[in-house]
Each structure stands twice: as C-alpha cells, then as structure tokens.
C-alpha cells in the first residue's frame, strides 16, 4: 500500500476539521456526558449550599492549580507538536509529545497526593454528596487523562514514521484533539469543584 508523503498532506491550507468524524462524535459525546454530571453537581450544590461550601473548603486548591498548569503546558506542547509535524520536524514533534506525556504523568502524581490527603482526612465518597461527586468527577477525568496518555504514546510512534497516510495523519490530529478535550474538561472541572461558591 502506497502512502502519501506527510509534508504535502499536512501542509494543505484548505480549511477543514482536523481528525476524523468518528473522533469528533466520541469527543462531543464525552462532553455531553460531562455536561450532565456538571449540571447534576450544580443542582446538588444549590440544594446543599452550606454542606458543599464547608466540604469544598477542605480541598487543597494548590493541587488543582498545579495540575491546571501542567495541563495547559501539555496542551501547548501538543499544539506545537502538530505544527512540527506539518513542517516535517519529526524529532521536535516526538520531543514535544513526550513533554506533554510527562505533564500528564505529573498530573497523575499530584492527583495521587490529592486523593491521599482526602482519604487520610476520612473525606471519602460515602462521607457526603460533595465528596461523592468530587471523586466521581475527578476520577472520571483522571480515567480520560490515562486514556489520553495512551493516545500520546501512539502519536510518538506515528511521529517516528517518515511518511504518514491520510488516515494516519487524521489519527494524529484526532489524538491531539482528544488531548485538548481532556484539558478543556479540567478547565471547567477545576473552578467548578475547587473555586465556585
């Protein structure tokens, strides 16, 4: 099977949606699921404002802020990696994706410390509705982030290929979009859980 060189393919200037339609259906479906959870959280908060405010005050906002920085940096790395691929700078793209991967791993490490702090304080899902939703929402996001790390690993291998087929390039772009979705969800989740009162 003959593949087209990735440079002309990536360098096309015609406006189009990056990635494949299937990836966008998955992303939009995921966003809808999170939107339902976010709405449910806000409804519960409005019903139990004092409980949610008191429980929220026990969270370490520094953990959330540090993880926000890690994900913003990782998104920047992924954007630059896509640009590097379009310029056929394969080695640079590999390094940038690896940098995004390390940011994702750092996010997990911080999250482990964050969860450990909550558990040590006996603030677990069975404590009250706030902690239940806190663990469900952040855990669901963490699951998506781990999936994203798998996607980034696949992108590193694609970046090593001298030529990408149209399908492979669409997968590369779609993978980058998935990672941005993970970051976007956190940018909603962080203020919702840690800051909004």
UniProtKB/TrEMBL annotation:
Keyword Phosphoprotein: no
Cellular component annotations (GO), alphabetically ordered: plasma membrane
TM helices/strands, residue ranges: 21-43, 63-84, 96-113, 133-158, 170-196
Main localization, broad class: membrane
Pfam families hit by this protein: COX3
Cell location: Cell membrane; Membrane
Reactions listed under catalytic activity: 4 Fe(II)-[cytochrome c] + O2 + 8 H(+)(in) = 4 Fe(III)-[cytochrome c] + 2 H2O + 4 H(+)(out)
Gene3D superfamilies reported for this sequence: Cytochrome c oxidase, subunit III, four-helix bundle
Residue ranges constituting the Heme-copper oxidase subunit III family profile domain according to the UniProt record: 1-197
GO molecular function terms noted in the UniProt entry: cytochrome-c oxidase activity
Superkingdom of origin: Bacteria
UniProt-listed InterPro entries: Cyt_c/ubiquinol_Oxase_su3, Cyt_c_oxidase-like_su3, Cyt_c_oxidase_su3-like_sf, Cyt_c_oxidase_su3_a-hlx
Keyword Nucleotidyltransferase applies: no
Gene Ontology biological-process entries: aerobic electron transport chain
Keywords tagged on the record: Membrane, Transmembrane, Transmembrane helix
Topology in membrane: Multi-pass membrane protein
Family classification: Belongs to the cytochrome c oxidase subunit 3 family.
Protein's name in the database: Probable cytochrome c oxidase subunit 3
């Amino acid at each position: 099977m003959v593949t087209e060189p990735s440079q002309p393919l990536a360098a096309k200037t015609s406006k189009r949606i990056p990635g494949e339609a299937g990836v966008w259906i998955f992303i939009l479906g995921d966003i809808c699921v999170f939107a339902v959870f976010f709405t449910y959280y806000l409804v519960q908060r409005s019903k139990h404002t004092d409980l949610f405010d008191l429980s929220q005050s026990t969270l370490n906002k520094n953990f959330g802020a540090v993880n926000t920085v890690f994900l913003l940096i990782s998104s920047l790395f992924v954007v630059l990696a896509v640009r590097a691929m379009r310029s056929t700078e394969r080695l640079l793209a590999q390094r940038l994706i690896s940098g995004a991967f390390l940011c994702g791993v750092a996010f997990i490490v911080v999250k482990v410390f964050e969860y450990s702090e909550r558990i040590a304080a006996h603030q677990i899902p069975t404590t009250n509705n706030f902690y239940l939703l806190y663990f469900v929402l952040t855990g669901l996001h963490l699951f998506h982030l781990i999936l994203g790390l798998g996607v980034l690993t696949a992108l590193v291998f694609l970046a090593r290929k001298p030529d990408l087929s149209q399908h492979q390039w669409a997968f590369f772009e779609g993978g980058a979009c998935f990672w941005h979705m993970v970051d976007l969800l956190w940018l909603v989740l962080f203020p919702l859980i840690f800051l909004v009162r």
